[in-house]
Design goal:
Length: 1079
């Protein structure tokens, strides 16, 4: 039966509001509720919000009116929250101190399961910790400190009303008067304890103006007077002992808070422990369980009577609770229990729930003091932990998240879990975690993970983070020590030994490599593919995961790059036998078949390359290093390998090849011609050198219109010389002829694998293939694939795989190491410094020119114009799509740095700082009787130089891409004393010319590729040179030319780690490079 208040007010609530209020009260939505004689205050949690309810019943008996207010938005109108507060007030009567109306019905059995569940939750998520208490000052002055219980409950903070009374002459106290807290703190005649309390509260709220204090807002929304104050939770440990020592702290339940009507309250600073007592009610077949607070120690004059939680008035946080007659300090370990049992009537637990009750109690990490009958007691045992590591990858994090668990049979606990025990119904005992053993296991993790064990900011659900590169090591170490490891919910296995076998066929070798994962075998290509995709694990046949050590990608990625994956078996071509042997050299055990074993035996018996002597058909003598080169060519021939003779320019590559061809002409049973493909500019050079050193070789000049007559007669010759352009056009006819050798001179001509000339060379049929170049790499490492696909098809694997390895303009050390290993046997590279000690010294210097004022102004205007335009274009389109604009800008700036007339034809006759510097140097060169080469990539700049030389009457020769009679021009410069200068286009004359008559070289403008400049200089600095060579680069100061030189120097070393070549710039130009150039 409902009480009078609910029955009276029910008519004012809609059915929907009553149903919602019933739900809120049933689902523990009522956080707190307090009932005073004329009012009810409550806090109601609804969804994510908490609402304050105030119900004024003061006019109910006299006028039949009840006033309500709720902060939910309905204001003074009835709502579900007010209904829930009414239900809670009637169900949980405040007790004798606050008064009640009507007769209470016997409350139903409380939900003991939910109460204990709250204890478990609070223990796991909010473990209480003792807070240090300040030393309380002594109390002197008498001031009445009145606790406003209604407001305290509503605000969930201790609310004080400060009253002062004057002593009358008759010895009685006068009428209470308000006292200002701020004035009290500063009063000279205040008793020390009263002043201290006021000072503490004042200081707190001056430093924390938004924490509440005496400036908070009440129900009416008006500001409270300064004679009230709220004591925040942070100050309870300081203020409550002071209030207790005054002896003037009291609890008010009236509206005027008169001290005489207030009930004195003391402050008991002793730690109170929660005592839980269970008694069996045999008739009802239940246990009655009730809780009380008792002080830990008795002191003289202190009341040691238990304090009932059922009738407690206010929960003040984890350290204090307000009982009916005192503030009691709570032992920290009991705080979760006290909070959960606060204002709860005794629990009644059926005998049938015994095992569940014991299990709940025995599983708590901290228990209050229990008084239990024998039927509810349990034993204690220490469990043995089995360690488990869980690893998880998340897209938002670079590292792997790791969690540590300890398994105790079917129970699992986190390493930092406060729940350190549980009840085992089968054993009838509480199983306690072995913390010492767990700490030892944690140390194993620290040792395995190393310094990365502790992460700076691991997410809340992780214990630490592991770098992916460390996963394989951690798994291997912990698995050895008995740990179970999971990744993303699946068991993780460590990798074992790698077994390798090689089987041979006619044209290939099959390498089968298997990795053992604790009884599960996986082929190596599967692992490499996972690593290349950024994965550290693979799924095994049984659904478990295998860890793939990241170092395998560095160690074995080379195999996948150069071999073809045939259903998990790596297939190497026959031409890769030498490479395969090098890759397997570091493996301890390899199972091979008889054929491959024979190949390995021949390689192991090979005692190195020995110098060779040319045959009688060769006229002349070879230098020692050239004899070594001839021996290397014979080595390639013996093992049927293609190779690249990459000696420095000027060391006689042509002579070495002619010596080898001369020995081949009589050694083969079946006569086949050899084909030499060369740039157009050096056809005559090959024919002249052959006539000089190998006159018995029958040479055919397969160029020009006359070549048609030779197509059917190529087999009559020993050597056929042609150009790249002719070879490309006549590839259909040339591929019909089987050649002994196909030799590419200046083989950088096929650096682009997709160019028609490159594709045509791969169609030529030959027993042997050879390339000759001083710069096997001009711009980027990808050019090597094109070269070696001609020399040894398939050696570097599929183009896509190799391109991936070298796409970065600055490849990692492992890529460089792999290329060095893979290409070492196939490339012979000697420098002049190494082998040609008698070659005269070469001196390289830079001559800086300052632009003339008019040219400087013109250059700066161009630079600013292009910089503004490029910034806009790059912002809109990106750098890659703006490359045409970039190239245009850089070209114009380089031209302006040389001569303004290269851009503006009207200024072609104006003076130029660079031309003046060149003419000054040329005059000095001629005066001392020397000859000089002048290189430029701009033929228009060379034309300007020609004009000046003509005006000065200085004889010269000139060569560019349109020059026909190159041989005659070179002969005149080399032999005629009056011809002191040779003006040469860098592109047309940078290769194949022997110009040793010159001992001075002038490079008018820097090129992106420093190798092109080196080739130009080596036209003079080569075999046959008897004079010291001086090379000068003319650079316009504070222009793009200076920045080009900086880029050359900063990016020079990459290819030298492989073949000591060079690195071009334009293909890999970055935004930072562009800013440097336009700066």
């Amino acid at each position: 039966m409902r009480r009078a208040l609910i029955a009276t007010l029910e008519q004012f609530f809609s059915e929907a509001d009553r149903e919602e209020g019933d739900r809120l009260e049933w689902d523990d939505g009522v956080v707190t509720v307090h009932r005073l004689p004329t009012s009810i205050t409550a806090s109601i949690r609804d969804g994510g919000a908490e609402h304050q309810v105030f119900i004024d019943t003061g006019l109910m008996e006299s006028a039949g009116k009840v006033r309500v207010h709720c902060t939910c938005g309905r204001g003074k109108r009835p709502c579900p929250h007010v209904w829930a507060a009414l239900l809670a007030a009637e169900r949980h009567d405040t007790g004798a101190l606050l008064g009640s109306s009507g007769e209470a019905e016997a409350p139903p059995d409380p939900p003991w399961r939910s109460i204990l569940a709250k204890v478990e939750q609070r223990v796991a998520t909010e473990p209480a910790a003792p807070r240090p208490a300040e030393t309380a000052p002594s109390v002197i002055r008498r001031i009445d400190w009145i606790i406003d219980l209604g407001r305290s409950v509503a605000d969930k903070q201790l609310s004080l009303v400060i009253r002062q009374r004057q002593l009358r002459r008759d010895g009685t106290w006068g009428k209470p008067a308000a006292v200002d807290l701020d004035l009290l703190a500063r009063s000279r005649d205040a008793q020390p304890d009263d002043a201290r309390i006021a000072e503490i509260l004042n200081r707190w709220f001056r430093g924390n103006p938004y924490e509440g204090g005496y400036g908070y807002y009440g129900w009416s929304g008006s500001r409270n007077p300064r004679w009230t104050a709220i004591v925040p939770e942070q100050l309870l440990d300081v203020v409550l002992p002071l209030l207790g020592r005054t002896g003037r702290c009291a609890l008010s339940v009236t509206q005027d808070h008169h001290p005489d009507d207030a009930k004195p309250v003391r402050v008991d600073e002793r730690a109170h422990r929660l005592h839980v007592r269970a008694e069996a009610d045999e008739a009802a077949r239940k246990w009655r369980i009730e809780a009380s607070l008792r002080a830990d120690e008795d002191r003289a004059g202190e009341d040691g009577a238990p304090g009932s939680l059922e009738t407690a008035l206010m929960w003040l946080g984890p350290a204090w609770v307000l009982l009916e007659d005192r503030f009691a300090r709570i032992a920290p370990s009991d705080a979760p229990w006290v909070q959960s049992l606060f204002r709860q009537p005794p629990m009644h637990v059926p005998f049938s729930d015994r095992d569940e009750l014991i299990g709940r109690l025995a599983g708590m990490p901290e228990l209050p003091r229990l008084e239990l009958p024998d039927t509810l007691r349990w034993d204690r045992q220490t469990g043995t932990p089995s360690p488990r590591l869980e690893v998880e990858s998340r897209p938002s994090r670079n590292n792997l998240l790791a969690r540590i668990w300890f398994d105790y049979g079917e129970r699992r606990r986190r390493a930092d879990s406060p729940l350190n025990g549980w009840y085992d119904a089968t054993l009838g005992a509480r199983i306690e975690a072995d913390i010492a053993a767990e700490n030892s296991l944690l140390e194993q993790v620290r040792e395995s993970v190393g310094t990365e064990f502790l992460s700076d900011f691991p997410p809340p659900d992780a214990d630490f983070e592991i770098k992916p590169t460390r996963l394989a090591h951690v798994v291997s170490e912990l698995r050895k020590k008995g740990w179970s490891i999971e990744a993303n919910g699946k068991p993780l296995r460590r990798s074992g030994n790698l077994t390798i076998s090689v089987r041979s066929s006619v044209d290939w070798f099959d390498l089968d490599a298997m990795v053992d994962y604790e009884g599960k075998a996986v082929r190596l290509p599967t692992l490499l593919e996972a690593l290349q995709r950024g994965r550290n694990t693979i799924v095994l046949d049984d659904g478990t995961l295998g860890v793939v050590p990241e170092e395998w990608l560095r160690k074995y990625a080379d195999w996948g790059r150069v071999a073809e994956n045939k259903d998990g078996v790596l297939r190497f071509k026959a031409s890769q036998a030498l490479l395969l042997d090098a890759l397997l050299a570091s493996e301890a055990s390899v199972d091979v078949d008889a054929k491959y074993d024979e190949i390995r035996r021949r390689m192991s018996e090979f005692r190195g390359i020995e110098a060779a002597t040319p045959g009688k058909a060769f006229r002349g003598a070879l230098r020692p290093y050239q004899g070594d080169g001839l021996g290397w060519l014979k080595f390639l021939e013996e093992f049927r390998l293609g190779g690249c003779l990459a000696d420095d320019m000027g060391l006689g590559k042509t002579v070495q090849v002619l010596a080898h061809l001369a020995s081949r002409s009589k050694s083969t049973e079946e006569h086949k011609p050899s084909l030499i493909v060369v740039p157009k500019t050096i056809v005559f050079n090959w024919i002249e050198e052959a006539e000089r050193f190998a006159p018995k070789l029958r040479f055919a000049n397969y160029t020009g219109l006359e070549r048609a007559a030779l197509r059917d007669r190529l087999g009559e010759f020993d050597v056929v010389v042609t150009t790249y352009g002719t070879m490309r056009r006549d590839i259909v006819e040339l591929q019909k002829t089987p050649f002994d050798y196909v030799i590419l001179d200046e083989s950088q001509a096929i650096k682009n694998a997709n160019a028609l000339a490159s594709k045509a060379t791969r169609l030529l049929r030959a027993d042997h293939r050879l390339a000759m170049t001083g710069t096997p790499i001009e711009n980027h490492l990808g050019e090597l694939w094109s070269l070696f696909e001609f020399l040894n098809p398939g050696l570097l694997g599929r183009s896509g795989a190799f391109e991936t390895a070298v796409r970065n303009p600055q490849p990692d050390d492992e890529t460089v190491r792999f290329l060095s290993k893979a290409l070492g046997p196939y490339i012979l590279r000697r420098t002049k410094h190494q082998v040609l000690k008698e070659l005269p010294e070469k001196t390289e210097q830079t001559i800086y020119c300052d632009l003339l004022p008019k040219d400087r102004k013109y250059y700066n205007e161009l630079r600013d114009y292009f910089r503004a335009g490029l910034e806009s274009a790059i912002e809109d389109q990106g750098l890659n799509r703006s490359k045409i604009q970039v190239l245009e800008a850089l070209l114009r700036l380089r031209q302006a740095a040389c001569h303004s007339g290269l851009i503006d034809a009207k200024r072609i006759n104006e003076p130029s700082a660079k031309i003046e510097a060149l003419l000054e140097q040329v005059a000095a060169t001629i005066e001392q009787g020397s000859k000089a080469l002048v290189f430029s990539q701009f033929t228009s700049l060379l034309s300007i130089v020609k004009t000046h030389l003509d005006r000065l009457g200085i004889p010269y020769e000139y060569l560019d891409g349109r020059t026909r009679d190159r041989k005659a021009k070179v002969h005149r410069f080399q032999t005629e004393a009056d011809c002191r200068l040779f003006l040469i286009s860098l592109k047309a004359g940078g290769v194949g010319l022997n110009l040793t008559a010159a001992d001075y070289v002038f490079i008018l403008d820097p090129w992106w590729n420093p190798a092109a400049e080196a080739q130009a200089i080596d036209r003079a600095h080569r075999i046959g040179q008897t004079q010291r060579v001086f090379a000068y680069r003319l650079i316009a100061r504070d222009t793009v030319e200076e920045k080009v030189v900086q880029l050359q120097e900063s990016k020079r070393g990459l290819a030298e780690a492989i073949i000591r070549a060079d690195n071009g710039m334009m293909r890999d130009l970055t935004a930072d490079d562009l800013r440097l150039l336009l700066g």
